[in-house]
């Protein structure tokens, strides 16, 4: 198998806006509920980071209205779309697993269905980095795997688009959060078709 990160980048580059169009009807209210929950706990003008922002809809568009928002994505095509869709936010092309920020840079960090595109062996270190980037009492909102699985799909969303995922099970993610120093604020299963994902809302202990 070729480089998993290249698979992810090329897959999202190839899909462009069709990725968002495909999921627009997949319970968009769920995102609003999650983001509202986070926004209500943040100080005004908080600094926020999203890992895997795609085209900026809905997360960047929602959060940039009241906060200082930075979105990161490995796909240059998605970042260009995001800059057009949400011109008042900031976006950069980057691999989330090798990012570097000063400690205590953000009040909140978001990663919805994006960490599971990173090879599993790199995810514990990324979670520890998130903890360091957050200010004391800061929040991390994420959706990760509910069951352990690593693999690819050859025709994801449309014919010819290859995509890669790598994920642990929910109990493993919970243990990684706790070991990193997070307090679990909320955790639930997010059903999708015959399977689903794990939602975690965690807080950095001051």
From TrEMBL:
InterPro entries: SAM-dependent_MTases_sf. It comes from the Bacteria. The keyword Methyltransferase applies. One of its GO terms (biological process) is methylation. This is Class I SAM-dependent methyltransferase. GO terms for molecular function: methyltransferase activity. Keywords: Methyltransferase, Transferase. Pfam families: Methyltransf_23 (PF13489).
């Amino acid at each position: 198998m070729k480089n998993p990160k290249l698979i992810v980048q090329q897959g999202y580059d190839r899909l462009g806006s069709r990725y968002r169009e495909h999921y627009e009807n997949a319970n968009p209210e769920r995102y609003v509920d999650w983001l509202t929950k986070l926004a209500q706990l943040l100080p005004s003008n908080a600094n926020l980071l999203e890992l895997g922002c795609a085209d900026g809809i809905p997360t960047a568009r929602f959060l940039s209205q009241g906060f200082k928002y930075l979105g990161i994505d490995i796909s240059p095509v998605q970042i260009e779309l995001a800059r057009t869709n949400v011109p008042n936010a900031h976006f950069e092309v980057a691999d989330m697993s090798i990012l570097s920020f000063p400690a205590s840079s953000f009040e909140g960090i978001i990663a919805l269905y994006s960490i599971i595109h990173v090879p599993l062996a790199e995810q514990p270190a990324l979670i520890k980095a998130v903890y360091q980037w957050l200010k004391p009492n800061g929040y991390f909102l994420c959706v990760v795997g509910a069951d352990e699985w690593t693999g690819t799909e050859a025709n994801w969303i449309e014919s010819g688009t290859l995509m890669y995922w790598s994920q642990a099970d929910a109990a493993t993610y919970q243990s990684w959060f706790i070991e990193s120093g997070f307090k679990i604020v909320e955790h639930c299963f997010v059903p999708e078709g015959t399977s689903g994902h794990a939602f975690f809302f965690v807080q950095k202990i001051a």
